[in-house]
Amino acid sequence: MGASAFMVLAVVLIVGWVTLKGYWPYLWHEWLTSVDHKRIGVMYCVLALVMMLRGFSDAIMMRAQQALAAGGAQGYLRRSISTRSSRRTAPS
To answer: In Å, how far from its chain's centre is CA 71?
Structure first.
């Protein structure tokens, strides 16, 4: 819930800033509807960086969810590590 609220707030702030500064006509005519291959390449690279950051944040959230547990119980990662170490037997 917190991440969704943060993303909505970030989008609202960016749209508000672009509207306040009056950049919509420039963005529409020069960037969003451009057929210039250089601008399309820049937009593609920016989108790739945004998606990479999104992927990193998703990976960090999933890893944190596995590492931590609710209610003081052992997390998934801690349980699997202790299970692996208990399976090992001492050499005879």
So the answer is: 26
